[in-house]
Amino acid sequence: MCVCVCVCVHPGKVRWQDFDQDLYVGATVVRPGQDPYARNKFNQVESDKLRMDRAVPDTRHDHCRHKQWKSDLPASSVVITFHNEARSALLRTVVSVLKKSPPHLVKEIILVDDYSDNPEDGALLGKIEKVRVLRNDRREGLMRSRVRGADAATAPVLTFLDSHCECNDHWLEPLLERVAEDKTRVVSPIIDVINMDNFQYVGASADLKGGFDWNLVFKWDYMTQEQRRARQGNPIAPIKTPMIAGGLFVMDKEYFEQLGKYDMMMDVWGGENLEISFRVWQCGGSLEIIPCSRVGHVFRKQHPYTFPGGSGTVFASIQSRLEMKKRLNCKPFKWYLENVYPELRVPDHQDIAFGALQQGGNCLDTLGHFADGVVGVYECHNAGGNQEWALTKDKSVKHMDLCLTVVDRTAGSLIKLQGCRENDSRQKWEQIESNSKLRHVGSNLCLDSRSARMGGLTVEVCSPSLTQQWKFTLNLQS
Ligand SMILES: [Mn+2]
User: Fold this and answer.
1) Distance from the alpha carbon of residue 303 to the mean position of ligand 1, in angstroms
2) Which of 69, 375, 433, 475 could form a disulfide with 173, with the two C-beta atoms 3.0–4.6 Å apart?
3) Residue 165: pLDDT above 80?
4) Which residues surround ligand 1, an ion (CB under 5 A)?
5) Nearest C-alpha neighbor of 276 from the set 292, 290, 288, 261
6) Strand runs (DSSP E) across 165-217, as ranges?
7) Which residues contact 21 (CB under 8 A, 6 or more apart)?
8) The model's pTM
9) Distance CA 266, CA 247 (A)
């Protein structure tokens, strides 16, 4: 006798388990002799080898494993936008959502195909249960695509994901719980690293917050020691963060609309995470990272796609956005800097260059020394601290109130840190050769790292040597 089990799947749809991965991914494999990085800037051959529902390590803190989530959480619409994504990566993203979420919490997955070369990349996935596919009929960019997906969403909560993610165990419940408690919270998971070369699911530090530098580039900041100590009693407590990485977050749909969604005049990609982070904080909401939620993401070193019209043309009028912020009674940026991101050093009007002073992957570093100590170089860590310098209008190179000082004006002599003094010619420097070198004004010698390992930085006769090439993170003079 045959017993049939009824599986409730809509007509024409299949369960993800029944989706033909080999047929879908097989159509776009990397041919022998082709560069596996050419299309996606990650190793597509390795990505294609993996099963769509491969097992990944549970990277959560132990405390998360016993946690009970509220039973009456709101459902979410998952919005995934993509442009020419590798099929295997896109499919794994979709499958991991379906596999790792309680079914009643995922109302739908909305794939927004931002005019990929092959419309089938998205269209074929529309066969999978809960997946809806929207395709732009021209390239719109990330922001307008996300807004299109959000507008089509029918669940009360929006979950935005990148198209090369893998959701981990119970990733969704802790995010939804925080948003259900307070609609003005915008939350994101800890983003685990998936290695772009071998696709190993690596994990991530739980001691990071999102921040930015003055080139307005997102970066991860280590929590201060004080912040880490405060968390020892409750290591899985939500982490207030000045900035979200941008690709992965959960937000109440009504709140997203109230706050002005995204700026529809923003093109292509980038900067939108800073913009929405500032807006959420300044307009009364908050941003959190929820440690019990983990989602893997393939981090790349390069953009895989082109910027139509060039990346320098993505500017537009922000008049209507300014009016909106007025209407919403948003606080000024100064408030954000002082209250949300007090760790960030703000360049003042005296600075003409600012940030780390870089030489390749190394940065000028106080090495923890104070007055009369030498300075050296150390691997750049982008966390400010001992690597934070400013060149000021009065020509000093400053770290806090210590200045680079040429004690002895002969080539080969060590540079010392000394308290900054006005009008001390031993502390006057200028940038030369298109801001690529630092020359001591009084001696015409250049800052040099050739003896960094034998004592410290020195001044030397200026030359084309790479040990004299220094670049500030941010140059405010042209
Ligand atoms: Mn991404």
Assistant:
1) 9
2) 69
3) yes
4) 162, 247
5) 261
6) 165-167, 185-194, 201-203, 208-212
7) 51, 52, 91
8) 0.84
9) 16
**Measured between alpha carbons, how far is 11 from 129 in angstroms, rounded to an integer?**
10
- Three-class SS state of 88: helix
Average pLDDT, integer, range 378-407 = 92
The CA 162 to ligand 1 mean position distance, Å, reads: 5
pLDDT for residue 29: 94
Cβ–Cβ < 8 Å for 336, 346: no
- Percent of the chain residues past pLDDT 90, beyond the cut: 81
Which amino acid is present at 373?
Answer: G
**Predicted confidence band of residue 478 (pLDDT cuts 50, 70, 90):** low
Q: Give distance in angstroms: CA of 381 to centre of ligand 1.
A: 22
Task: Name, in order, each residue with C-beta under 8 angstroms of 239's C-beta and a sequence gap of 6 or more.
Answer: 209, 223, 231, 288, 289, 290, 291
Task: Measure the CA–CA gap between 169 and 167, rounded to whole angstroms.
Answer: 7
The CATH code that applies to domain 351-475 is: 2.80.10.50
Chain-centroid distance of CA 115 in Å reads: 24
- Segment 306-329 shows an average pLDDT of 77
- Ligand 1 center from residue 294 Cα (angstroms): 15
Residue 206 CA to ligand 1 centre (angstroms): 19
Looking at residue 157, its amino acid is V
Helix/strand number for the chain, H first, E second: 12, 24
Q: How far is the CA of 290 from the centre of ligand 1 (A)?
A: 19
How far does residue 245's CA lie from ligand 1's centre (Å)? 9
Q: Where in the chain is the domain with CATH 2.80.10.50?
A: 351-475
CA of 244 to the centre of ligand 1 (A): 13
Distance (Å, rounded) from C-alpha 194 to C-alpha 300? Answer: 10
In which region does residue 434 sit, left (phi positive, over 0), alpha (psi from -120 to 50) or beta (all else)? left
CATH number of 16-339: 3.90.550.10
DSSP per residue over 112-177, as a string?
EE-S-S-THHHHGGGGBTTEEEEE-SS---HHHHHHHHHHH--SSEEEEE-SSEEE-TT-HHHHHH
How does DSSP classify residue 114? -
